[in-house]
Amino acid sequence: VLFRSQAAAYAAFAAVIAYFSNAPTHSLRAADQAVIKLSMSHPGERMEECRSRTREELAKLAPNMRAKMSCPRARWPVLVELEMVGKRIYRQSGDPRGLSDDGPSSLYWRFTAPAGRHRLAVRVRDRGGKEDFDYVLEQDVDLDPSRVLLLGFDSNKKRIVVK
Question: What does the H/E/C string look like for 7-61?
Fold first, then answer.
Protein backbone atom coordinates (compact mmCIF):
# COMPACT_ATOMS: atom_id res chain seq x y z
CA VAL A 1 0.00 0.00 0.00
CA LEU A 2 2.83 2.33 0.88
CA PHE A 3 4.60 1.54 -2.40
CA ARG A 4 1.48 2.28 -4.48
CA SER A 5 0.78 5.63 -2.80
CA GLN A 6 4.43 6.62 -3.16
CA ALA A 7 4.39 5.66 -6.87
CA ALA A 8 1.18 7.66 -7.37
CA ALA A 9 2.74 10.71 -5.71
CA TYR A 10 5.83 10.43 -7.95
CA ALA A 11 3.63 10.05 -11.05
CA ALA A 12 1.58 13.12 -10.11
CA PHE A 13 4.75 15.13 -9.52
CA ALA A 14 6.18 14.02 -12.89
CA ALA A 15 2.92 14.96 -14.63
CA VAL A 16 3.01 18.47 -13.11
CA ILE A 17 6.63 18.94 -14.25
CA ALA A 18 5.82 17.65 -17.74
CA TYR A 19 2.87 20.03 -18.01
CA PHE A 20 4.81 23.13 -16.91
CA SER A 21 7.78 22.34 -19.14
CA ASN A 22 5.65 22.66 -22.31
CA ALA A 23 2.20 24.12 -21.69
CA PRO A 24 2.43 27.75 -20.60
CA THR A 25 4.21 29.42 -23.52
CA HIS A 26 6.26 32.39 -22.45
CA SER A 27 8.22 34.90 -24.49
CA LEU A 28 10.65 37.43 -23.09
CA ARG A 29 9.72 40.02 -25.72
CA ALA A 30 7.31 40.57 -28.59
CA ALA A 31 7.94 38.68 -31.83
CA ASP A 32 8.89 41.89 -33.68
CA GLN A 33 11.41 43.11 -31.08
CA ALA A 34 15.20 42.78 -30.91
CA VAL A 35 17.55 43.46 -27.99
CA ILE A 36 20.45 45.89 -27.88
CA LYS A 37 22.93 45.59 -25.02
CA LEU A 38 25.58 48.12 -24.17
CA SER A 39 28.28 46.56 -22.03
CA MET A 40 31.45 48.54 -21.54
CA SER A 41 34.36 48.56 -19.14
CA HIS A 42 36.89 51.16 -20.22
CA PRO A 43 39.41 53.24 -18.26
CA GLY A 44 39.22 56.96 -18.94
CA GLU A 45 42.37 58.90 -19.67
CA ARG A 46 44.45 60.20 -16.78
CA MET A 47 43.30 63.56 -15.43
CA GLU A 48 46.91 64.76 -15.25
CA GLU A 49 49.80 63.81 -17.48
CA CYS A 50 52.86 62.13 -16.07
CA ARG A 51 55.76 64.50 -15.44
CA SER A 52 59.41 64.27 -14.50
CA ARG A 53 60.28 65.32 -10.98
CA THR A 54 63.03 67.87 -10.44
CA ARG A 55 66.14 67.05 -8.40
CA GLU A 56 64.84 69.25 -5.59
CA GLU A 57 61.54 67.34 -5.49
CA LEU A 58 63.38 64.00 -5.46
CA ALA A 59 65.66 65.14 -2.61
CA LYS A 60 62.63 65.98 -0.44
CA LEU A 61 61.22 62.45 -0.81
CA ALA A 62 62.16 59.40 1.24
CA PRO A 63 64.74 57.21 -0.54
CA ASN A 64 62.21 54.48 -1.28
CA MET A 65 59.79 57.00 -2.84
CA ARG A 66 62.22 58.61 -5.32
CA ALA A 67 60.62 57.68 -8.62
CA LYS A 68 61.73 60.00 -11.43
CA MET A 69 58.21 60.17 -12.89
CA SER A 70 55.14 61.44 -11.06
CA CYS A 71 51.96 59.93 -12.48
CA PRO A 72 48.71 60.88 -10.70
CA ARG A 73 46.34 57.93 -10.77
CA ALA A 74 42.93 59.62 -11.06
CA ARG A 75 41.08 59.07 -14.35
CA TRP A 76 38.27 60.88 -16.14
CA PRO A 77 34.75 59.40 -16.10
CA VAL A 78 33.67 57.75 -19.37
CA LEU A 79 30.62 59.25 -21.10
CA VAL A 80 28.62 57.13 -23.56
CA GLU A 81 25.88 58.37 -25.83
CA LEU A 82 23.69 56.23 -28.08
CA GLU A 83 21.44 57.46 -30.89
CA MET A 84 19.05 55.41 -32.96
CA VAL A 85 17.54 56.88 -36.11
CA GLY A 86 18.69 60.37 -35.06
CA LYS A 87 17.07 60.22 -31.62
CA ARG A 88 19.19 60.03 -28.46
CA ILE A 89 18.07 57.02 -26.45
CA TYR A 90 20.93 56.75 -23.94
CA ARG A 91 23.45 59.08 -22.32
CA GLN A 92 25.30 57.98 -19.23
CA SER A 93 28.58 58.71 -17.51
CA GLY A 94 30.44 56.00 -15.60
CA ASP A 95 32.75 56.99 -12.76
CA PRO A 96 36.13 55.26 -12.49
CA ARG A 97 36.32 52.44 -9.96
CA GLY A 98 38.99 51.92 -7.33
CA LEU A 99 40.13 53.66 -4.18
CA SER A 100 42.10 56.24 -6.15
CA ASP A 101 39.58 56.55 -9.00
CA ASP A 102 42.12 54.78 -11.20
CA GLY A 103 40.11 51.80 -12.43
CA PRO A 104 37.89 51.36 -15.46
CA SER A 105 34.45 52.89 -15.73
CA SER A 106 31.74 50.26 -16.21
CA LEU A 107 28.45 50.82 -18.00
CA TYR A 108 25.67 48.37 -18.79
CA TRP A 109 22.31 49.01 -20.42
CA ARG A 110 19.75 46.75 -22.12
CA PHE A 111 16.72 47.74 -24.14
CA THR A 112 14.40 46.39 -26.79
CA ALA A 113 14.02 47.94 -30.21
CA PRO A 114 11.74 47.23 -33.15
CA ALA A 115 13.15 44.75 -35.63
CA GLY A 116 14.36 46.12 -38.96
CA ARG A 117 17.12 48.31 -40.35
CA HIS A 118 18.22 51.22 -38.15
CA ARG A 119 20.93 53.89 -38.19
CA LEU A 120 22.91 53.58 -34.96
CA ALA A 121 25.40 56.09 -33.56
CA VAL A 122 27.59 55.33 -30.53
CA ARG A 123 29.83 58.01 -29.02
CA VAL A 124 32.38 57.65 -26.23
CA ARG A 125 34.32 60.37 -24.39
CA ASP A 126 37.09 59.28 -22.06
CA ARG A 127 38.73 62.69 -21.51
CA GLY A 128 37.16 65.55 -19.61
CA GLY A 129 37.03 69.25 -20.23
CA LYS A 130 35.66 69.23 -23.77
CA GLU A 131 32.43 68.90 -25.67
CA ASP A 132 33.33 66.57 -28.54
CA PHE A 133 33.68 62.80 -28.36
CA ASP A 134 36.92 60.82 -28.63
CA TYR A 135 35.36 57.82 -30.40
CA VAL A 136 32.37 57.81 -32.74
CA LEU A 137 30.81 54.90 -34.62
CA GLU A 138 27.85 55.38 -36.97
CA GLN A 139 26.51 52.47 -38.95
CA ASP A 140 23.36 50.83 -40.22
CA VAL A 141 22.35 47.66 -38.39
CA ASP A 142 19.81 44.99 -39.29
CA LEU A 143 17.95 43.85 -36.21
CA ASP A 144 16.30 40.47 -36.65
CA PRO A 145 13.50 39.70 -34.18
CA SER A 146 15.61 37.12 -32.38
CA ARG A 147 18.90 39.04 -32.49
CA VAL A 148 20.83 40.43 -29.55
CA LEU A 149 23.12 43.26 -30.67
CA LEU A 150 26.09 43.89 -28.36
CA LEU A 151 27.84 47.26 -28.18
CA GLY A 152 31.18 47.50 -26.41
CA PHE A 153 34.63 49.05 -26.46
CA ASP A 154 37.94 47.38 -27.28
CA SER A 155 40.44 49.23 -25.06
CA ASN A 156 43.43 47.58 -26.76
CA LYS A 157 42.45 48.69 -30.28
CA LYS A 158 40.80 51.90 -29.02
CA ARG A 159 37.55 51.45 -30.93
CA ILE A 160 33.84 50.86 -30.43
CA VAL A 161 32.75 47.34 -31.36
CA VAL A 162 29.38 46.02 -32.54
CA LYS A 163 28.68 42.28 -32.41
Answer: HHHHHHHHHHHHHHHHCCCCCCCCCCEEEEEEEEEECCCECCCCEECCHHHHHHC
In 3D space, the residue among 160, 139, 136, 138 whose CA is nearest the CA of residue 150 turns out to be 160
Q: What's the CA gap between 60 and 42, in Å, rounded?
A: 36
How far is it between the farthest Cα atoms of the chain? 95
List own/partner pairs for 154-162 with CB under 8 A and 24 or more apart. Answer: 155/42, 155/43, 155/104, 159/135, 160/122, 160/124, 160/135, 160/136, 162/120, 162/122, 162/137
Q: Which of 77, 81, 110 is nearest to 94 (CA)?
A: 77
pLDDT digits (tens, 9 = 90+) for 53-103: 999 999 999 999 999 999 999 999 999 999 999 999 999 999 999 999 999
**In the 8-state DSSP scheme, what is residue 91?**
E
